[in-house]
């Protein structure tokens, strides 16, 4: 039976793919994705029909993937990171459910920006955290703003996806203005650009000193909670062991 | 130079390890971990010194790992899931920073329970979400409670790690009592047990009908937001494409 695999390829380096993702790519005859991400995994896509498209054509890509499966082909629709975290899995399943299409479909998990940015920073998300996308493309700002307030108030570590784009320059600035009402200016901030790919940059700073110009559309921003601290090249959010154990 | 690798091995199936994790395990001469997780990856641990311990000895394991590196050995300290998400990375870095130890240390990202449970459920965390551990071992209940309230109020999808343990049976019951104040009883709930390993179970239910007896210490529980719905075997949180595009 033909299947649809909704695959997260991780940050983009070949060695942050899982074995399961590689296996499902191998089993597919058609690979569909945004061309920038297809390029990152092209070395392992031998003898495949590759359908590449531009960044904004998500709906076309998802519909094309479903159509190819209905035509009897096994298809991998790829996202960077984890397909189920701001990736293509949700859109594909939305379309399948809305049109009540009966195909075999599986989501294959991947290393999302939260996993990869956190690893490069040390251990910033070792305690409870929230993930918030600052893109207003699909979510209105008033909802995003409410989530930032609640997350800051409850002392969650906060991960910002899509902190900036060509058209949206002020999302991260406005978000930080909200956070400043709840958190000390010395709270650590980690900025990771192009995690595990060419141009990787890891910046450790704090709320007061962070430079918004260093943030772009390939950045993930992690704001520490009240316990987070910096040590050498690491951003560390303790989980609480030191209150309970001697070391 | 000897190095310490803080490695997330993913949910436990060999094919949800990343290539980078396998590479760093191969480079290590000593592997340290809780014996249940060591067992999951034993087939690839050839010619290694393996130091296994019981579940509660986290501090001992982290200190031993640091000591072995100081003795000149390259060590992998393994966690299930992602070492940086309620895993061993934070504790190891806490100890290193507190004792001001100067060793080469790297966190290697892995597929956490949030990635794997979400993939098995469909696309429940496609929009903003919070991760909350219900373990009161290291965090007092009043802080956890505050986080649940804020997360529920701001309509985050909520992922509960450690929903129950041998000693803590009521955490998830109390957590759901809080959530019921903010969310409709028909809100979808996904429960995933033993993701990608023997005994895997995927349960789709809702706040009203969920059976607390199905939840154990190997479970991850995901509570939908106000937009989440069930379709066939999938739990879907739309990201908002249907408001903007025709399909």
Automatic annotation (TrEMBL), chains A, B:
Keywords of this entry: Cobalamin biosynthesis, Methyltransferase, S-adenosyl-L-methionine, Transferase
Asked whether the UniProt record includes Amino-acid biosynthesis among its keywords, one would answer no
> In what residue span(s) does the Tetrapyrrole methylase domain sit?
4-209
GO terms of biological process kind: cobalamin biosynthetic process; methylation
Question: Which pathway?
Answer: Cofactor biosynthesis; adenosylcobalamin biosynthesis
Carries keyword Transferase? yes
- Please indicate which superkingdom the organism of origin belongs to: Archaea
Identification of the protein by name: Tetrapyrrole methylase domain-containing protein
Organism of provenance: Acidiplasma cupricumulans
């Amino acid at each position: 039976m033909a299947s649809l695999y909704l695959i997260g390829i991780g940050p983009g380096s070949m060695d942050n793919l899982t074995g399961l993702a590689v296996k499902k790519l191998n089993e597919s005859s058609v690979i569909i994705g945004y061309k920038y991400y297809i390029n990152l995994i092209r070395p392992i896509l031998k003898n495949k029909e590759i359908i590449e498209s531009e960044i904004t054509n998500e709906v076309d890509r998802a519909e094309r993937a479903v159509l190819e499966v209905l035509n009897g082909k096994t298809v991998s629709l790829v996202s960077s990171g984890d397909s189920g975290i701001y990736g293509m899995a949700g859109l594909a399943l939305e379309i399948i459910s809305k049109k009540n299409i009966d195909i075999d479909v599986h989501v294959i998990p991947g290393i999302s920006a939260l996993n990869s940015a956190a690893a490069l920073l040390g251990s910033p998300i070792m305690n409870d955290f929230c993930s918030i996308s600052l893109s207003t493309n699909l979510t209105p700002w008033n909802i995003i703003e409410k989530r930032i307030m609640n997350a800051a108030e409850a002392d969650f570590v906060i991960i910002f996806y899509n902190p900036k784009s060509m058209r949206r320059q002020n999302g991260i600035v406005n978000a930080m203005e909200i956070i400043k009402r709840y958190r000390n200016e010395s709270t650590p901030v980690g900025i990771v650009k192009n995690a595990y790919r060419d141009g990787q940059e890891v910046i450790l700073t704090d709320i007061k000193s962070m430079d918004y110009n260093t943030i772009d559309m390939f950045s993930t921003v992690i704001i520490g909670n009240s316990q987070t601290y910096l040590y050498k090249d690491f951003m560390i959010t303790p989980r609480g062991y030191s209150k309970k154990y001697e070391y």
